[in-house]
Amino acid sequence: ASTILDYQKTNTEMDTAIQTLRHNMKYVLNSAKFDYSNGPLEGINRKIKALKRTCYGFANQKFFFLRIDCIFS
Fold first, then answer.
1. Where in the numbering of this chain does the Transposase IS204/IS1001/IS1096/IS1165 DDE domain appear (predicted)?
2. Are 5 and 22 in contact (CB under 8 A)?
3. Cα-to-chain-centroid distance, residue 51
């Protein structure tokens, strides 16, 4: 981390990368420290959004929620 903090600008694309890393340093270190991920939740959201696109003509929400229940049970 000290290398990133001591970096001197060189007018290259690396300057942008280092600046972004400095800006998000707290979050980068946090993600390295903990094993938590929102990936599984994003996968669930993706499946529900795909279902919404294919179930556009359902008569009511009850059937939509039943389909969601079928997918995840």
1. 11-68
2. yes
3. 20
Using CA atoms, how far residue 17 sits from 10, 14, 52, 61, 71, in Å, is 12, 5, 37, 45, 40
In this structure, the chain runs to a length of 73
Rg (CA), the chain: 22
Q: Using an 8 Å Cβ cutoff, are 2 and 29 in contact?
A: no
Written as six digits, the tokens of 1 are: 């981390």
Residue 63 belongs to what domain range?
39-72
Number of domains making up the chain: 2
Eight-class DSSP state of 10: -
State pLDDT tens for residues 3-39: 887 888 889 998 999 999 999 999 989 988 998 888 9
* Greatest alpha-carbon span in the chain: 62
Q: Are residues 51 and 68 in the same domain?
A: yes
